[in-house]
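so ive been stuck on this for like two days lol. basically i have the seq below and the ligand is pyridoxal-5'-phosphate, smiles is in there too. i just want the complex predicted, nothing fancy, no docking runs or whatever. if the output looks off dont worry ill sanity check it later, just need somthing to start from for the group meeting slides
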Amino acid sequence: MDRNQQLFDRARRVIPGGVNSPVRAFRAVGGTPRFVQRAEGAYFWDAEGRRHIDYIGSWGPMILGHGHPAVLEAVQRAARDGFSFGAPTEREIELAEAICAAMPNLEMVRLVSSGTEAAMSALRLARGATGRNKLVKFEGCYHGHADALLVKAGSGLATFGHPTSAGVPADVVKDTIVLEYNNAAQLEEAFTQHGHDIAALVIEPIAGNMNFVRAGTAFMKLARDLCTRHGAMLVFDEVMTGFRVGFDGAQAHYAKLIPGFRPDLTVLGKVIGGGMPLAAFGGPRATMEQLAPLGPVYQAGTLSGNPVATACGLATLKEIAKPGFYESLAARTRSLMDGLAGAANAAGVPFTADSEGGMFGFFLLPQLPRNYGEVMKTDGAKFNALFHGLLDRGVYIAPALYEAGFVSAAHSEQDIAETVAAAAEIFKTLA
Ligand SMILES: *Cc1c(COP(=O)(O)O)cnc(C)c1O
């Protein structure tokens, strides 16, 4: 029997669904999850020893590819000095300085261990700092699994949401307003109705949890203006996009399009830990000083600022800060998208794609979707055929059509050519 299947059977006896995060279980695409034995550069090897070109990269963190020598060396050195102290270290300052230097809205950051924790804490801070309760979020955006954020849209315009998970009391999401992404009319109405009660608007500026959907420039400007006018905080969840679409995140992209643009708070994760559990949230000093021990907003963590994780993050940031890093990463990502588009067009399969830096999304649709509803118009059966066809040919993309993809600096033009050739074979069967 296939060793991946053996491990999956064994895992399911002691871990719910056999996995520690649901998407890994392949429920959307069916089949047997690949258990990873080891990884190097652009590849991982599964339990059968089969090599896969890896386009998820731990869902974004592995921007340098797996096992980059400088990062590995930094992690090994840090581990020798101790795994965790529960007392401050110099490396936490260095990482905080490096993160603050990258994004102009960050004067201070607090380091935590996961994106969920960072987003949850940032929103507590926004509520504490404004003295308000209501949150605005968008359908299809994911901000981790904190209770107040596990909400889907209500039935009417700008109504309050319903919990998307059992175990989340309706009371906990009663202050969360869920709107359609890129829908200016809904956004305006929400602020007209509730503006004086809104603590924060939280958004993935380039949404990577509904594949890859950009917030339009006019929409983002409207969000910024409404927050400013009503005294709400604009919270950029850049857990995925931070240091992934560019060194200075998606906010730099919007700052180029909207003069003077800045979010009020920024949430980071994924790349800043280089593959270790590390995340952060930050903003201007006056806001961040509302946090304990200086201010009334409580937030803490036994493993926060972990010395091995900070070493991994710092070594990663050092590499990706090198001149030309993002230009070549973006060019490689575009060449993958162009190659796939060419192959799909030749086969007569509807296809459209977008990318920024080392993050991409493609759709078996004639044009780019603007919101979750449009993303979900993708033909699921065709996507699954593409996914399994690629997997059989040693190419690993996200096992769900609503996830973004990632290219690392370790992916070569040869890897991309192999990927496009594999996809071309499958597209011919999908037309
Ligand atoms: C991954 C992600 C999170 C959650 O981060 P975890 O480390 O998985 O808790 C939050 N927001 C966005 C945009 C993400 O992509």
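The domain at 69-320 is CATH 3.40.640.10 (Aspartate Aminotransferase; domain 2). Residues 114-116, 119, 142-144, 204, 208-209, 237, 239-240, 269, 279 surround pyridoxal-5'-phosphate (CB under 6 Å).
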